[in-house]
Design a protein that fits this description.
Rossmann fold, six-stranded parallel beta sheet, binds adenosine-5'-triphosphate, two-stranded antiparallel ribbon, alpha/beta, 10% strand
Amino acid sequence: MDVPENHPRAQSLRIRERIIDGMHKNIVAEAGLIAHGRGEAFDYLIGEETPNFAEEQQQAAVALILRAQKPVFSVNGNVASLCPNEIVEISELLNIPLEVNLFYRREERAKIVADKLVEAGAEEVLGVDPEYHKQISELTHSRRVVDKRGIYSADVVFVPLEDGDRTMALRKLGKQVITVDLNPLSRTSIWSSITIVNNIVRSIPEMIEIGHKLKGLSLDQLSEILNSYDNDKSLRESLEYISNRLKTLSKTSLKNLQKK
Ligand code: ATP
């Protein structure tokens, strides 16, 4: 569907089209549409722009990836459909390999997602070659499979738009987890080491900019950024931001908001 340029919600609709297109190409699972809708609802609540607290979360996330010994970027169908080029760019910039890891795993779908990343310029995508498959016993059946060169042996896993069970399993295995999740109350948000409460389509390009700035820092300087970051506090700030925003909006005419 062509989204008219002057449509008041053109940007949001164009993003939605990427998910629908991804579903037709079997990159996105049906449940991925629902997950996207939930994300859209929370994006409304934060005003569809990056709040200050998310900038801090993104900075801490980049610092943690740069400081990691073996980071990995776990990619699902929604993430691959929403920002494939940016994922490849950040993977190269921060030296974080890409691994396809799906909630509704089927080998052929994992391969289609990997092909999407290769089409966007990725040289190597983990998670598809059965020779390297390993099982994480903390997870049930099809969701157990990971790549022994990637998630299995990683110390830091960047796993945007994830579900709570897997996040908890990764934490229990002693890994640090970074997520992007517009819902600050999801189990993933609460269980992650660093939660970025922002839309991934804004988050990854902004993390690329931060990456260029932080790349030259020493390990001590990166640790300094991380030592001053507190995820629980940051999540509480996101809730405060949303509730203050709603309080302010409730005192003004919502017609003004629509004109924006
Ligand atoms: P949990 O199991 O962690 O409690 P959940 O059951 O909501 O969460 P899913 O629906 O699998 O888990 O996860 C999708 C999450 O991703 C949702 O919390 C949704 O808000 C978020 N989300 C969806 N689209 C985006 C997006 N574009 N950017 C950031 N977050 C998003």
